[in-house]
Amino acid sequence: MSKAATDNPAGSIASAPVAIEAAGVVPRAKPSSYPALFAARMAGREKRVLGDLFGLRNFGVNLTRLAPGAASSLRHRHTKQDEFIFVLDGEPTLITDAGKESLHPGMCAGFPAGGAAHHLLNETSADVIYLEIGDRTPGDSADYPDDDLRAELGPGGQWLYTHKDGSPW
Amino acid sequence: MSKAATDNPAGSIASAPVAIEAAGVVPRAKPSSYPALFAARMAGREKRVLGDLFGLRNFGVNLTRLAPGAASSLRHRHTKQDEFIFVLDGEPTLITDAGKESLHPGMCAGFPAGGAAHHLLNETSADVIYLEIGDRTPGDSADYPDDDLRAELGPGGQWLYTHKDGSPW
What we know:
Chain A is mainly β. Chain A has helices spanning 3-7, 36-39; strands at 20-21, 45-49, 59-66, 77-78, 83-89, 93-96, 99-102, 107-111, 118-121, 128-135, 141-143, 150-153, 159-162. Chain A has a domain at 3-11 and 45-147: Sandwich (Jelly Rolls). In chain A, strand 12 and strand 13 (159-162) form a beta hairpin. Strand 8 (107-111) of chain A pairs antiparallel with strand 1 of chain B, so a sheet runs across the interface. Chains A, B: This is Cupin.
């Protein structure tokens, strides 16, 4: 493969599809990258990774399903990454510093870097399905006001987790 | 306002909402930033700007409606920006270097920087509605294989258009 092809994000995904049925994508195998104590709290959350399938690198797009009782994440905010969600099905509860709000299909919310800590909970008896978008600005970190956790984005794009005092999990 | 508040993208949007009904957002007043000859070809395209309402800066999210006969854009590709679309309603035709494909609700497509030139057409008699996402990587430019047009992203985030030979429109 030529250097030009190697450098080309499209060229490096030789089999990238033109368009896909989002619900037909196989869910991500690893349910969460959190330390085990917190990963256990992500039961019932299922992510279909969409953007990466097309070779996108600047932001990620997932189709995420929350079974009844499941959460989108621990409540958190990023220092560099902007995030956005669009509800496709069901009625998630959005929890931010401002309180709780029930959402429904066609509603959206955005979470700018440095803004309010947030997450979604499915407090209903039906599935919730939404699109989530987040960019991949280098040097990002995340704080978790309700949990003894901090995260730093490593140079390879993986999250590195510590206690709030900096000691490793 | 303190410097810290000025520097904080969330703090600078004092009235940013927590969540909104996407379809209730007032459409963007300016239909297109293209030179007039090309802007006229964007009739029937209506964009509701969603991400900016929440103070997002790293990427944009629009809820876009194409009336029958309308196009998403001129067929183009970016050098730096990744793009993604998710169909919510109707059946747009996706046109890329690979040909034509009819999409339907629940389908998505991604267009990595440097990848295939692309756009959507509404060749049906019903509206098409989709979400579009694109990042704002500095130094972006766009080329338009079917038209005598080039675009460079200016330092203020505005698009600067020229003919392919570099002369201004």
